[in-house]
Amino acid sequence: MIGHVLQRYDPRATRITSSSDRFEWRRYTLHKLEVNQPFDLYGLFWLQGQSTDRSPGRIFRTPDDGVQIQLFRDLRPRLNSRQGDSSAEWVTEDPLASTDNTPITVEGILGDQNGSVVAIECITVHEQYNIFEDRPREYRLAPKYVMFNVRESTNCQQFTGVRLRTRDLDQWADLIGFSRVNGEGSIGISLKLPDIPDIPLVNGSSLTFEQSMVRRGPTSTGGSIERKVWAQVDHLSNLCWQEVDVNVIAPITTLISLCTGTSNDVIDVEVRNDENGWMPICSNYFVHAEPELRRGDAFLSFRQVGLASIGTWLNTVDRLGPLPPVVARFASRGARVNLETELLEMTTVAEGLHARLYPDQVRLDQETCSAVEAAVRAAVDHMGDQVKNIVRGKLSHLEEPGYTLRLKTLAKRLERVAPAIYGKPNKWAEEVSTIRNGYAHRTGGFLDSDAIDGLITILESLRWLLRCVLLLEAGISEETLSDSIARSAEFSFFMHRSKLAFPHVYINQ
Fold first, then answer.
1. 218 upstream amide cis, omega within 30 of 0
2. Residue 406, Cα to own-chain centre: how many angstroms?
3. Is residue 315 over pLDDT 90?
């Protein structure tokens, strides 16, 4: 047993003996399992498609080990003795079984819970067995993720709906509905869930904010009503888990982080399809966490953003590739890594973001590039192949905009929103380019303590610039974004420091 388990068994559970395996297990009833908090449950498990061959075991979650399944009998082909062989010679049923650790799918049933559990892509992380003693072997599997409340397991890995909660979603949404009820000699709280219309998405799915109520009590000491807010997308076209994660979960959490300035880790995810209702997902990537955001502290509130902007973001974010989550991570308060590493990442992201937003921008037209290429090739025609190859490589990117031009183009996007982020665009772009080239090629040596303030200022300017460009891509108006920047205490502090570090860039801009 685990000493720190929060979700414990029903003490009135019934003990059941599995005579075939001589191991005892119990049926336990949990009214509501919080799958992303520690738990420990016993049940029967089997390989997918082999429900007649079952093993007693337990599925548990701890802060140290994460989610694991412990089985008391190996369901896979392993070492077995030949019956009637007095020499006790041991052979392998499957020659690859002793070394093959191909991920497997395991199903199981836990006490009186509705439906079964399905553990996807399980790998062995621990095994212990003794071939000389007549006792079951024990081993542990670590799944990629586990689905609970599965009623039909034959088609449980293609999903038509997903809903998720992040650590700060309730505080950021700040939905109306709660009111105080006063009566003669009584007091209470009332909750009327507001109606939130669906937003259609271009891929045929729909987005909404779903709400659920959690009631506790009343008891002799009182009771409570709580609301949980879910970001929910329905009518998906049978997406696998990876597609759901990339196309729905990651974009929504990224946008919320950009708006709040906090790290919005996922704390709950549920999926469904035509054969199953909502199935909670248990994964080591989803961990319960207390809210970091306080009411009213968001850089952009949900009321300013609106559900339509989240829909716009989901419709367009795929063209930005993996860049937005990097920006969101560095835009979060307290999310800091090595200064030099972060500078390299953010300067690289700036180049990549420009390339995705302005793929047609060039610094020379094709006719000019062809003329330059012909002239240069003729000039080096008499030289060796090595020189020709070097020149050919340089000429292949002649039309692409340089790094400073990319920065100035991104800066121009914000000239009506927050030009103070970059001050004088030409000088700012030169400073960023110099720092980026210095660290990328190590021409500037390692970190100089006298230059730290300047490096931090450049880094902060990139954080603000990239964050605001992405928020504009979500359809947030320039006026709304400009007002939020003007009210931001963090931005005011950045402006104070930037004028001290780079007066030639930020003073009298």
1. yes
2. 28
3. yes
Q: 67 and 149 in contact (C-beta within 8 Å)?
A: no
Higher pLDDT, 247 or 130: 247
201 near 315, Cβ under 8 Å?
yes
What pTM was computed for the model? 0.83
Start-end of H helices in 318-451: 323-331, 339-357, 366-379, 385-395, 403-412, 425-440
Angle made by CA atoms 483, 488, 489, in degrees to the nearest 5: 155
Average pLDDT of the residues in 30-54: 84
Separation of alpha carbons 499 and 486, rounded Å: 17
Quickly state the pLDDT bin for 19 (edges 50, 70, 90).
very low
DSSP state of 9: P
Residue 113 has pLDDT above 50, yes or no: yes
CA distance 403 to 407: 6
- 106 neighbors 45 (Cβ within 8 angstroms): yes
Write out the two tokens for 235: 């009518």
Average pLDDT, the chain: 81
Residue where the block lists tokens 């093959």: 100
| Cα–Cα separations (whole angstroms), residue 398 to 65, 285, 369, 419 | 53, 44, 6, 30
Comparing CA positions, the residue from 111, 109, 122, 121 lying closest to residue 148 is 109
Look at residue 36 and tell me whether its pLDDT is greater than 70.
yes
Token pair, residue 471, equals: 């928020």
Query: What distance in Å separates the CA atoms of residue 148 and residue 271, rounded to the nearest whole number?
Result: 10
Say which DSSP state 239 is in. B
Tens-digit pLDDT profile for residues 316-345: 999 999 999 999 988 876 556 678 888 888
Q: What is the pLDDT of residues 169-183, one digit of tens each?
A: 999 999 998 888 887
Q: Give phi and psi for 375, each to the nearest 5.
A: -65, -45
Helix axes 339-357, 403-412, angle to 10 degrees: 70
Note whether 130 and 137 are within 8 A (CB): yes
CA–CA separation, 158 and 144 (whole Å)? 16
User: Would the CA dihedral through 458, 460, 462, 468 be positive or negative?
Assistant: negative
